[in-house]
């Protein structure tokens, strides 16, 4: 191993701590989704419209707050360090999730979710922190692994949340079945805060506000500003494509098997397969990214993703749909991690916090746009149209990357 490939002392301990913290954070965000509407229904005499509205707001508020506040936290991260931002995010999340367990009404939950989103950023800052501590020759693999952490958490979260709420609901009955999972997740986030505080070291020198470059100057000094902007747009469009399917998966599956009693189980499998595909492929694709360059992998991932949505729109079998979404998960392992790797390789280390925070804002906007796109199109047309539209979105993204990143390539020579 040459000198340029050597990892700093304590790197592995920091990496494993941040990976586990990102996993728990992803799990904490997603574990309440299977029962949030049921929890809200138990907190008052709400109509069906109110329950749907409050549930949608509880989901969207986190991402809306992220989009608004992330640039501020990114600026603070570049002055104070990414580790402090990870501590801030995990500490506040531990508090807000625990307090949500004591919710007396739906508005309280929505407010807590907004605060949680406003102080979020653990995964984003953990990724920026470990990117700054990692030699560029390994950036692709590291970005893939950090995405795997959040993906695995999002995959496990709904399953664990559903199991815990059912288990404690049978024991305690009423809303307490939904409250206890919040307390458990809050405790896990407290452990994440402690682990990040005592096990992660960041080689960072604080910068005063006066000496920190303004964002306009950073953008002007970037070697390829157009490429950075295209990566922001890529993050938004890929996230939008991912989220557009989530609101309609169970309904789409139900339309394929209207007389079946196993719709919930099959829909759960179909919903989980992309995350499983990403988990299986992330490490190998990360290594390939370091060999051939992230832009090459990104282009392949986008075109494969766009093509896969065609048979998804045409199939009448939920199991074929699950298989295609598994393949989509493999393609996804070459999309967002590749975009983040391009950002890493084209951003000065002292600006990582702000660049990655803007990227998080675009990702949050993509989550909201995707959910709105999926639910709106399916309501105005049909479920298949959502898949056609999403495939076109990735195709447009592919064209943008080809046009604006033409001739740019990264290949790490060993």
Describe the structure.
It contains 17 helices and no strands. The protein is mostly helical and 414 residues long. The chain has 2 domains: 194 residues, MFS general substrate transporter like domains (Growth Hormone, Chain: A, Up-down Bundle), CATH 1.20.1250; 203 residues, MFS general substrate transporter like domains (Growth Hormone, Chain: A). Helix 3 runs antiparallel to helix 4, helix 10 runs parallel beside helix 16 and helix 12 packs parallel to helix 14. Pfam families: MFS_1 (PF07690). This is Transport protein. GO terms for molecular function: transmembrane transporter activity.
Q: Which descriptors would you attach to this protein?
A:
single chain; 414 residues; mainly alpha; Growth Hormone, Chain: A; 2 domains; 78% helix; globular; MFS; transmembrane; transport; cell membrane
């Amino acid at each position: 191993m040459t000198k340029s490939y050597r990892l700093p002392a304590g790197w592995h301990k920091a990496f494993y701590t941040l990976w586990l913290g990102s996993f728990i954070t992803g799990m904490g965000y997603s574990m309440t989704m299977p029962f949030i509407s049921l929890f809200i229904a138990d907190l008052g005499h709400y109509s069906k419209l109110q329950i749907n509205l409050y549930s949608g707001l509880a989901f969207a508020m986190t991402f809306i707050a992220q989009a608004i506040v992330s640039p501020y936290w990114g600026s603070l991260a570049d002055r104070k360090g990414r580790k402090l931002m990870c501590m801030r995010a995990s500490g506040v999340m531990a508090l807000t999730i625990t307090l949500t367990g004591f919710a007396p009404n739906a508005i309280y939950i929505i407010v807590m979710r907004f605060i949680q989103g406003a102080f979020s950023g653990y995964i984003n800052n953990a990724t920026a922190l470990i990117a700054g501590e990692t030699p560029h020759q390994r950036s692709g693999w590291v970005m893939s692994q950090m995405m795997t952490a959040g993906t695995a958490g999002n995959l496990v979260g709904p399953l664990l949340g559903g199991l815990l709420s059912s288990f404690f609901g049978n024991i305690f009955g009423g809303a307490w079945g939904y409250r206890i999972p919040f307390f458990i997740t809050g405790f896990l986030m407290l452990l994440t805060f402690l682990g990040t505080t005592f096990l992660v070291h960041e080689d960072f020198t604080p910068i005063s506000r006066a000496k920190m470059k303004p964002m306009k100057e950073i953008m002007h000094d970037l070697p390829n500003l157009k490429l950075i902007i295209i990566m922001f747009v890529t993050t938004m469009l890929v996230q939008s494509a991912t989220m557009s399917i989530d609101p309609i998966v169970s309904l789409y599956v139900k339309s394929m098997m209207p007389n079946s009693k196993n719709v919930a189980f099959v829909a759960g499998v179909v919903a989980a397969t992309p995350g499983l595909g990403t988990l299986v492929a992330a490490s190998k694709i990360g290594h390939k990214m370091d060999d051939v360059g992230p832009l090459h992998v990104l282009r392949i991932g986008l075109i494969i993703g766009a093509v896969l949505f065609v048979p998804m729109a045409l199939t009448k079998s939920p199991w074929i749909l699950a298989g295609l979404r598994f393949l989509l998960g493999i393609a996804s392992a070459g999309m967002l991690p590749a975009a983040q790797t391009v950002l890493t390789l084209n951003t000065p280390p002292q600006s990582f916090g702000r660049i990655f925070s803007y990227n998080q804002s675009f990702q949050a906007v993509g989550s909201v746009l995707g959910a709105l796109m999926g639910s709106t199109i399916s309501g105005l047309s049909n479920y298949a149209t959502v898949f056609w539209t999403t495939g076109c979105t990735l195709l447009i993204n592919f064209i943008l990357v080809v046009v604006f990143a033409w001739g740019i390539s990264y290949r790490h020579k060993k």
